[in-house]
Amino acid sequence: MPTDETVVETAAEAAQEFVFSRLRRSDVDDLDVTVTFEDGVLTVDVYVLAPDVDEDVETIADDAALTAQSAVDDLFSE
C-alpha cells in the first residue's frame, strides 16, 4: 500500500510530465499542480498559463489531471 506522500508525488509528477509533453517549458508562464489525498480520495487540480500557444490549454490541464489520476490507479494496482 503506497503512502499518502507517494500518492501525491506520483500524481504531481505525472501531471507535470503530461503538460510538458504537450507544451514547451519556455511557452509555459505558470504551472500549478495541486494534489491532495485524504481518506482515500484523490483530488488533482492543474492550472496552466501559456498565453502564446495555439493549443487548448484548458484541455491540456484537464488531461493532465486525468493522467495524474491514472498514474495513481496504476500505483495502487502494482
Characterization of this structure:
The protein is α+β, with helices and mostly antiparallel strands. The chain has a single domain, classed as GMP Synthetase, Chain A, domain 3 (2-Layer Sandwich). Helices cover about 50% and strands about 25% of the residues. It contains 2 helices and 2 strands. The protein has helices at about 5-20, 55-75, and strands spanning about 30-40, 40-50. A two-stranded antiparallel ribbon has the order 1-2. It is elongated and about 40 Å long. The N and C termini lie close together (about 10 Å). This is DUF3194 domain-containing protein. It holds the Pfam family DUF3194.
Give me some keywords for this one.
78 residues; alpha+beta; GMP Synthetase, Chain A, domain 3; two-stranded antiparallel sheet; 2 helices; 2 strands; 51% helix; elongated; DUF3194; MTH677-like_sf; DUF3194 domain-containing protein
Mean pLDDT across every amino acid position: 96
Strand order of the largest sheet: 1-2
Helix/strand-derived category reads alpha+beta
- Distance, first to last CA: 9 Å
| Relative helix content | 40-55%
Spans where pLDDT lies below 50 across 5 or more residues: none
* Main pleated-sheet profile: 2 strands, antiparallel
CATH superfamily: MTH677-like
Which series of helices and strands comes N to C?
Answer: HEEH
Gist of the model:
The protein has helices at 4-22, 57-77, and strands at residues 30-38, 41-49. It is α+β, with helices and mostly antiparallel strands and 78 residues long. Strands 1-2 form a two-stranded antiparallel ribbon.
